[in-house]
Amino acid sequence: MEGPVCPLPLKHDDQIILGHGSGGRLTHDLIKNIFLPYLSSPPLLSGDDFARLTRPNGEVVVSTDCHIVSPLFFPGGDIGRLAVCGTVNDIAVSGAQPLYLTAGFILEEGLPVQTLVRILESMRIAAQEASIQIVAGDTKVVEKGKADGLFITTTGFGFLPEGRTINGSQAQPGDVILVSGSMGDHGIAVLAERGELGFSAEIQSDVAPLNGLIQDLLAAAPHTHVLRDPTRGGLATTLNEIAAQSQVGMLLYENTIPINPAVQAACEMLGFDPLYIANEGKIIAIVPPDEAEAALEAMHRHPYGKSAARIGEVTRNDAGRVLLKTRIGATRILDMLAGEILPRIC
Amino acid sequence: MEGPVCPLPLKHDDQIILGHGSGGRLTHDLIKNIFLPYLSSPPLLSGDDFARLTRPNGEVVVSTDCHIVSPLFFPGGDIGRLAVCGTVNDIAVSGAQPLYLTAGFILEEGLPVQTLVRILESMRIAAQEASIQIVAGDTKVVEKGKADGLFITTTGFGFLPEGRTINGSQAQPGDVILVSGSMGDHGIAVLAERGELGFSAEIQSDVAPLNGLIQDLLAAAPHTHVLRDPTRGGLATTLNEIAAQSQVGMLLYENTIPINPAVQAACEMLGFDPLYIANEGKIIAIVPPDEAEAALEAMHRHPYGKSAARIGEVTRNDAGRVLLKTRIGATRILDMLAGEILPRIC
Predict the structure, then answer these.
(1) What CATH number has the domain spanning B176-333?
(2) A55: which chain B residues are within 8 Å (Cβ-Cβ)?
(3) Which residues of chain B are within 8 Å of residue A112 when distances are taken between CB atoms?
(4) Between chains, do B56 and A56 touch, taking CB under 8 Å as contact?
(5) If you compute the radius of gyration of chain B from its CA atoms, what whole number of angstroms results?
(6) How confident is the model over B257-306, as pLDDT tens digits?
């Protein structure tokens, strides 16, 4: 489970290790102790994956994401689809409608144009599906061996309907925790494509633009408190972030969390916990109890929410902690991911 | 002058070469023939470095830029200052006031935190100078040897005062062409720092946020037609882009173009033309003749415009071409940069 150890907090004479890109505790430490002292603003300090920008007539929502997945192509997607969907989803979980995307490409000398074209075509399709325009771009090339194929950084923005406040600090005791489908598919699909499973598995990444699903969900459950996509660090890390932001506890029921049997099997063989594995086409929704059933039904009607499930509730006790009631009836603390388990998965 | 040859147009079974990142003809070919068929929208098709986004109450301007400069530190700046200023300037040349920036970091495993901190501090100072907020970010880490220290992709946006239309297609015959200072400083400073000059030169990069200078310029010359920062590909390539967008000719007077003696000497030794070398703290302004003097005076009063000069005029003849009247009185065509001469300078 745990990656290489680096004593916290990170100090100026330490070195960056892979775990600093994990989305887990080391990433939080890097951001809190290294980035925020230098690059700080109210939106960055809020701890959400998006920035709400005040302007006279409404608010613009913006988010940025670097994509470095290896390999570039994997079952169910590729770096291009990932680059579009990752940022679309970060905007959509604010409750805003994503409208525009920028894309910056860092290409390695020697990259076959054919490869680039496959990726661009994939971006085009994903952008079309998400109904967004790619409005600005940049391309740089570095010498062979100075990058790994290509990296894509996307920045998205959208506009927020007035009066909508959905973010990680809105969870309230009594709220119901929903997920839109099975956990861990993306991370394990990428791992399988690298040949690191030691056996072949028919696991597809779930990478998808979720703004349509979220729109349907919000129509059914307009008082939704929190939406977030459990990417790096998985469900467990994402819920820990929200529990800390909202200063609430959470109680999950292990037997209700949807996990594909092939993902479960792969995780058991490798000693991974699927609750820490990245997803790229799933959302967590935290909704008031009286809207939970409507939210669940709305997700079930959408192609990307067929396996949506109610997995737990927000509690007053244990503020900042996520507890898991296991299949055998025990209760254990589900902590934030500590190090890195699967580098280069997004 | 010319980099490695790659037959145009780029085809699907070709490979990416360094010249595709040059900002010159090969980059244009890559964008036109490979990117635009897949990722296209009116703002991307306009050929400007920024996207104007229509919304009910005014327009948002956005631009994105990947930064891969090597080495990370050079006289006068570093990748952090470059990453802030490059994008601030791309927004400012639209006539918009840059307000917000996002930053995506791709870090190489093993990067000393000290190095990162120096760069972040430099970003902070540049952001403060430019009066912008960094509002969203992302960090990924790749294995040692899979990137070169770090890469930074920034996306900026600002808001455009109503009724302002400044872009590459607005140049008109009779307009005066101004530059805000000496050409080629940035590219040669980076080259010198790499030890590629073969001698030591006291050349500082000009990297700077130009929104303040542009604000002063526009107050003095409110009918300015075109503003652009001559980065990759230098003055010659940038003016060729504008000449093509506006379908006008241009005539430059070589003896009026400001060039630092040390840059001139370095270029002569290496066989470079300073008009093709990147700048990171200079603008080209194309203004109606009756506002040219006021524009020039406004630049002279600003710290970043002390060496501003009138270097030529827009002509009706030779549409799409830039001509240079040389010191000895001959006239030659100043073409767009063909290949790559200085990779990794921004």
Answers:
(1) 3.90.650.10
(2) 159
(3) 13, 15-16
(4) no
(5) 19
(6) 999 999 999 999 989 999 999 999 999 999 999 999 999 999 999 999 99
